[in-house]
Write a structure and sequence with these properties.
heterodimer; A: alpha/beta; Rossmann fold; disordered C terminus; B: mainly alpha; two-stranded antiparallel ribbon; 13 helices; binds adenosine-5'-triphosphate; binds magnesium ion; transmembrane (chain B)
Chain lengths: 255, 323
């Protein structure tokens, strides 16, 4: 077992954004994490990466309890992430952004630079290496997030809505990139609202609603699960929609 | 290549200055510019590169100044021997102050550093061993060369020039190492930097300690040149503010920013002081206030950032072509 969360609860005051969530991740998995807005996906994510301290519950990485580890220690162990709202280092070039990730495994500048160039090549951003990161738009920033995370040579990569704000074509390219990352042996957790992405990538899916896990299984299983449809559409709409293809209801086919 | 050319020109001007403009006033002015440039460059490591705006840096300045004068006043040694002691003192103090305060964000960090510096000034003002309000003096008559007590400003000028060069070399080396990259990343987004493995607290603390050490050297040099230190000249808040403004005006986070800022502000202050006498001090505050407003409003990157080559604009223009 590569990554495991046991009974994670995160409360903001008396409000439980994540309520007793557990998950296990095996080497080679692509776990999809879905749920309506405010379901607690990002919060759960942040508890896994150490950005937030869970109110209760444990996080294990390779069998080791990392609940009290800082984000930087978790990164060193091989846990990398992207942010839903890109946290671009705006005062740097695109290359330098990626070098920050590369510095984790190579302390020398020249070495980090070489590695960063290789990562940019891999994600198809070589052309932009010397561009100021500030000049990037949403698609560029989202891709840069992935590039930076890859440069840390992670074992597990957590993508928080890495494809939000991308157009259909960019989403296709991003899916290809994620496949390529997966093929290179990296285990993935993806939070995504775009169902087509989940359907085409995830091997398993976990559904959040109001902080709780309400379903898990294959993408097909969860999208036909009445509880899931109800969570997204409300109970009445779910009844009315019975018999229709749920994927279309959950955001519709990608245009 | 161009950089190298510029560097040689600046170095040549710096070396030739006191020989070309050789009146005592001009030489003293030159020495003061270099001295403040050392202090502002030291501040720049934590205030500019790490973006942690310390307004209490005078406390490290004071460590050096009091150690240098104390070494003579208490032990009869050359003030030079106080320098290592001052560095140790400043670094230890930086560690003690930095661990709790560097977690604070933005203004809270600045306020915490002011509080520390003012507390220290009050403590020292009330400590007889450190001369209380009168302060400590260095050797009135130099006993030998090691007392570094000269009538002319010329020897100080070249001494300061060497120390400034070393300070800038250390800064340059740091900025181009992993530490410098991490600091810049932490400044932009601490959260993202940490997620990529940058140990934010430790890196900022190291920067703070390095900055404190160099600031303490500046303090020691200052006390040696003036031959004494008292709570106002060694621990007064105005020195913190001056250092900060010089770096910000020239360009915080840029190698030569503090030097540029010092080269503009020190002459301005010295000249206005010599024209207006005692009344100049009040004016200085007004000018500094105005500069803060101007920097904040128009050029947060400082003067040098106007000349800095920016990264090429990206080709990627965003999600404008969304479906
Ligand atoms: N720092 C915080 N303080 C208080 N409440 C918070 C905080 N962060 C998140 N929340 C709340 O926790 C709930 C879960 O938020 P979270 O961002 O995890 O949802 P999400 O599933 O990622 O949603 P989205 O799809 O919109 O990204 C929301 O109701 C949110 O308002
Ligand atoms: Mg979210």
């Amino acid at each position: 077992m590569l990554l495991e969360a046991r009974g994670i609860t995160k409360a903001f005051g008396s409000f439980k954004a994540v309520d007793d969530a557990s998950v296990t991740l095996e080497q080679g998995d692509i776990l999809g994490l879905i749920g309506p807005n405010g379901a607690g996906k990002s919060t759960f994510f942040n508890c896994l990466t150490g950005d937030l301290k869970a109110t209760s519950g444990r996080v294990l990485f390779g069998g080791r309890d990392i609940t009290d580890f800082t984000p930087e220690l978790r990164a060193e162990l091989g846990l990398a992430r992207t942010f839903q709202v890109p946290q671009t280092f705006e005062g740097m070039t695109v290359l330098e952004n990626v070098m920050i990730g590369a510095f984790l495994r190579s302390s020398h500048r020249a070495e980090a630079e070489t590695k960063a160039h290789a990562v940019l090549e891999r994600v198809g951003m070589s052309r932009l290496a010397e561009a100021s990161a500030r000049s990037l738009g949403t698609p560029g920033r989202k891709r840069l997030e992935i590039a930076r995370a890859l440069a840390t040579e992670p074992k597990v990569l957590l993508l928080d809505e890495a494809m939000a704000g991308l157009n259909a074509n960019e989403v296709k390219l991003a899916i290809d990139l994620v496949r390529d990352i997966h093929r290179s042996g990296i285990t993935l957790v993806i939070v995504e609202h775009i169902m087509e992405v989940i359907m085409s990538l995830a091997s398993r899916v976990m559904v959040f609603h109001q902080g709780k896990e309400i379903a898990r299984g294959s993408p097909r299983e969860v999208t036909s699960n009445p509880a899931v449809i109800a969570a997204y559409l409300g109970t009445r709409a779910a009844k009315a929609a019975a018999g229709h293809t749920p994927i279309e209801l959950m955001g519709g086919p990608l245009t | 290549m161009r950089r190298l050319l510029w560097l040689s020109v600046v170095a040549a001007v710096a070396i030739a200055y006191p020989l070309l403009l050789s009146s005592p006033f001009q030489q003293r002015l030159g020495a003061l510019v270099l001295l403040y440039a050392i202090a502002a460059s030291a501040w720049n490591i934590v205030g500019g590169y790490a973006g942690q705006v310390s307004v209490g840096h005078v406390v490290f300045f004071g460590c050096g100044a009091y150690a240098a004068m104390g070494s003579y006043a208490k032990f009869g040694l050359s003030p030079l021997f106080g320098i290592p002691g001052g560095i140790v003192l400043a670094v230890v103090l930086a560690a003690i102050v930095g661990v709790p305060t560097l977690r604070l964000s933005g203004h809270y960090f600045s306020m915490a550093t002011i509080a520390v510096a003012e507390t220290m000034r009050l403590i020292v003002t009330n400590t007889d061993y450190l001369g209380a309000a009168v302060g400590l003096s260095g050797p009135t008559v130099p006993r030998n060369i090691f007392d570094l007590s000269f009538l002319s400003s010329l020897p100080y000028y070249y001494l300061f020039l060497v120390i400034l060069a070393i300070t800038l070399l250390i800064t340059w080396w740091m900025a181009n190492s992993r530490m410098g990259f991490y600091l810049r990343a932490i400044k932009d987004s601490e959260r993202a930097a940490r997620s990529l493995g940058a140990p934010a607290s430790r890196t900022k603390l190291y920067a703070f300690m390095l900055s404190a050490a160099l600031t303490s050297v500046a303090g020691a040099l200052y006390a040696m040149m003036f031959g004494f230190v008292d709570p106002e000249s060694g621990l007064g808040i105005l020195i913190s503010v001056k250092i900060l403004i010089m770096a910000a005006l020239g360009g915080a986070g840029l190698l030569f920013g503090p030097l540029v800022g010092a080269a503009i502000l020190v002459p301005l202050e010295e000249i206005s002081n010599s024209w207006l006498g005692g009344k100049g001090a009040g004016l200085t505050f007004v000018v500094y206030g105005a500069i803060i407003v101007l920097i904040a409003r128009f050029q947060p990157g400082g003067i040098l950032s106007l000349f800095k080559r920016r990264g090429k604009p990206g080709v990627d223009t965003g999600a404008s072509h969304a479906p």
